[in-house]
Structures are given as C-alpha cells and as structure tokens.
Amino acid sequence: MFTPIGSAEATITIFMDDMPIPARPGETIAACLLRAGLSRFRTTPVSGAPRLPYCMIGHCFDCLVEIDGVGSRQACLSPVADGMRVRTQQGAATIDGVSPS
Ligand code: FES
C-alpha cells in the first residue's frame, strides 16, 4: 500500500495493543501502523464499525487512537517515539475509564 521513500530503516519500536512494531524515526504513527498492515485504528462509538486513516492530514478523525494513555489522539499527526504505547480506541475516548462528557 505504501512505498517508502529512500532507504529509511526501522530503528525504533512502538507497541500497538502490546504488539511490538518496528518504526522509522520521523514517520507518523498512522504511516507506521498502515505499513505494518493493521486493519483498524478505532471503532465508532455508535455502531462499533472499524475505522482506518482516510485523509492523513488531520481532517477526518478516522485515525483516532490512544497514545500513552491519552485517548482521541490523531495518529496521522503524531510522530512515533521509541517505546510509545498505542492502543486501538474502542468507541468514545475515556479518561481513566470514564467518558469525558
Ligand atoms: S487520517 Fe484523517 S485525521 Fe488522521
């Protein structure tokens, strides 16, 4: 789906739902996870339908994930960092298990 430009090496590791994924410094979480072949980043709050990044420029919000314990973060705008913990966002975001409404 994605062809890397140049010969960047995946020299760091992020974790998606506790699964280690090689990452290239400077790339976004969305680019990294799509390259790894993930089939969903989040589910919708109403129907539970799976969603993947669509626009890759911060407009559609289909790439929302939990990053290091903080929900509703846009994976397409967030650069990877070594050891980063990313989780699939199930429905609406919560703070310590409580919906922030
Ligand atoms: S992919 Fe559209 S906002 Fe991230």
Report on this model:
With 101 residues, the protein is mainly β. It has a single domain (12-88), classed as Ubiquitin-like (UB roll), CATH 3.10.20.740. It has one helix and seven strands, in the order ββαβββββ. It has one helix spanning 29-35, and strands spanning 12-16, 19-23, 42-43, 50-51, 64-67, 70-74, 85-90. Strands 1, 2, 3, 4, 5, 6 and 7 form a seven-stranded mixed sheet that branches. The radius of gyration is 13 Å and the shape is globular. Bound molecules: FE2/S2 (inorganic) cluster. FE2/S2 (inorganic) cluster (FES) is lined by residues 30, 53-56, 58-63, 74, 76. Pfam families: Fer2_4. InterPro entries: 2Fe-2S-bd_N, 2Fe-2S_ferredoxin-like_sf, 2Fe-2S_ferredoxin-type. Residues 10-92 form the 2Fe-2S ferredoxin-type domain.
Shape: globular
For the record, the count of structural domains works out to 1
In the predicted model, the low-confidence regions spanning at least 5 consecutive residues are: none
The amount of beta strand, in percent, is: 25-35%
Along the chain, the helix and strand elements come as EEHEEEEE
Number of strands: 7
Termini separation comes to 37 Å
CATH topology: Ubiquitin-like (UB roll)
Protein name: (2Fe-2S)-binding protein
InterPro entries: 2Fe-2S-bd_N, 2Fe-2S_ferredoxin-like_sf, 2Fe-2S_ferredoxin-type
Keywords: Oxidoreductase
Domain 2Fe-2S ferredoxin-type: 10-92
